[in-house]
Write a structure and sequence with these properties.
Length: 264
């Protein structure tokens, strides 16, 4: 399926994987609606993307955990850009590692649950009701995580792991419930990708940060964006239901090949 002229709503667009997805979709000719909380970063990104493209781009400073803000922003984006063909739920975060669950701060637990669970559901709810269900067509792509399927052996991951497992369950259940429409529901599961995500996850614990990447190189955000474009470009009768993209050294969450760089 060509992405030329398709209207894509992307959350978490201001940096990292989202920013890379936005760049790749612009190259593929899509029109973009960009959401995140940081208006300044979105404005800069729009300017950067517009320099090399004639695609339509709009953005909104939206906290995906606030349903009223999500609904208002989705409605106004549709008025400006037309019906939404593709929703990419990407905005997400992990906080508080390596503190074990009982030591996590309650506001951090609330922020993770609200962003990673409510955020994905609120966005899907608004986009389905305001746009996709009218035409009974579209694609919802949820950026989940390999940690959605596998319990991480490192501390401080209980809430984030549970959030990502919930996103996997939501993806599969929503796909079933949209039977009778041409709406595809897909998941892409990144492994370790070098973005701000990990600094946020472990705060200022540099030892933990560096230990995590010891002996191998994490992926970079454009690696994930390439996978996104591949999944979206498939014909409508074909769903790449899920795709795991990990550094080859990341054999599983339990086994990392820490000698990978040594062999290069
Ligand atoms: O993270 P980062 P990634 N409302 O921190 C936005 C998953 N993943 O790109 O609001 C709206 O660079 C935030 O923007 P802002 C991960 O779980 C990653 O690595 O302006 N937006 C920013 O644009 C997540 O689902 C790895 O601060 C909100 C973006 O989210 C996705 O990949 C591994 C928001 C986060 O950018 C992208 O993460 C894995 C809110 N409430 C899964 N809260 C990895 N990097 O290794 C945050 O398995 N944002």
């Amino acid at each position: 399926m060509s992405l030329q002229g398709k209207v894509v709503l992307l959350t978490g667009a201001s940096m990292g994987i989202g920013e890379a997805i936005a760049s790749s979709l612009i190259e593929a000719g899509a029109n973009l609606i960009l959401f995140s909380r940081s208006e300044d970063k979105l404005s800069n990104l729009k300017e950067k993307l517009s320099a090399s493209s004639t695609s339509k781009i709009t953005y909104g400073a939206v906290d995906v955990s606030d349903y009223h803000s999500v609904e208002a922003a989705v409605s106004s984006a549709i008025e400006e850009m037309g019906e939404i063909d593709i929703l990419i739920n990407n905005a997400g975060l992990a906080l508080g590692a390596p503190r074990p669950f009982p030591e996590l701060k309650i506001p951090d637990i609330i922020t993770m649950n609200n962003t990673n669970i409510n955020g994905y559901m609120f966005m899907a709810h608004a986009v389905l009701n305001h746009s996709m269900l009218k035409r009974k067509q579209g694609t919802i792509l949820n950026i989940t995580s390999v940690t959605g399927l596998e319990v991480p052996p490192f501390p401080g991951e209980a809430v984030y792991h549970a959030n990502k497992a919930c996103q996997e369950a939501f993806t599969n259940a929503l796909r079933n419930e949209l039977c009778g429409t041409d709406i595809r529901v897909l998941a892409l599961r990144p492994g370790c990708v070098a973005t701000n995500f990990h600094s946020l996850r472990v705060g200022h614990d540099r030892e933990m940060y560096e230990g995590f990447f010891e002996g191998y190189e994490p992926l970079v955000a454009p690696d994930i964006a390439q996978g996104v474009v591949y999944m979206l470009q498939q014909p409508v009768n074909l769903s790449v239901k899920a795709m795991d993209i990990v550094p080859s050294a990341q054999r599983s969450l339990n086994v990392f090949d820490r000698k990978w760089n040594e062999r290069r």
